[in-house]
Design brief:
Elements (H helix, E strand, L loop, with lengths): L2 E5 L2 E4 L7 H6 L2 E8 L14 E7 L9 H16 L3 E5 L6 H12 L4 H11 L8 H13 L4
Parallel strand pairs: 2-5, 3-4, 3-5
Antiparallel strand pairs: 1-2
Helix pairs in contact: 2-3, 3-4, 3-5
């Protein structure tokens, strides 16, 4: 598992295995946002168990990340963070989908789309939130975000 801290309460990285759960729990992670359509994570049986939200998305310019998935993930992240928990967003490589989810969370916390993109790019070298098909979804999310 390869990951990067983006803020004190947000991590972005690769797909964790079940034996990585204790490490994530030790970091204070209480929510895992799985952005992979093709890979469901095993449930966490640790104490306390982490919540795993499966947001089935593809890394494909012809199948854009649904805004509803970004909203659902951002809502869950805000609730977790409000209770003192941390969030781990992942996709296969930690480059596109997880970066989009991380940006959505940062936008929900008050950053602009450009600032969120810049922060993720600066904190995770492999991340490409500025890839055209990802940047487009991040900016669309920012334009439509309204916290319930």
């Amino acid at each position: 598992m390869d990951f990067s801290p983006i803020t004190e309460s947000l991590f972005i990285g690769t797909t964790p295995e079940a034996d990585d759960y204790d490490r994530l729990r030790g970091l204070g992670v209480r929510l895992i946002l799985n952005m992979r359509a093709e890979h469901r994570l095993l449930p966490d049986s640790g104490t306390p168990p982490m919540t795993i939200v499966w947001l089935r998305t593809f890394d494909n310019p012809f199948l854009p990340i649904p805004l509803s998935a970004l909203r659902r993930g951002a809502d869950a992240a805000l609730k977790t963070m409000a209770q003192g928990g941390k969030v781990y967003a992942h996709c296969a490589v930690g480059r596109h989908r997880s970066a989009a989810m991380g940006a959505a969370i940062l936008i929900a916390q008050g950053l602009s789309a450009d600032d969120a993109i810049r922060l993720i790019r600066d904190r995770r070298a492999i991340a490409r939130p500025d890839a055209w098909h990802i940047r487009w979804r991040i900016r669309r999310f920012a334009a439509t975000w309204k916290h319930p």
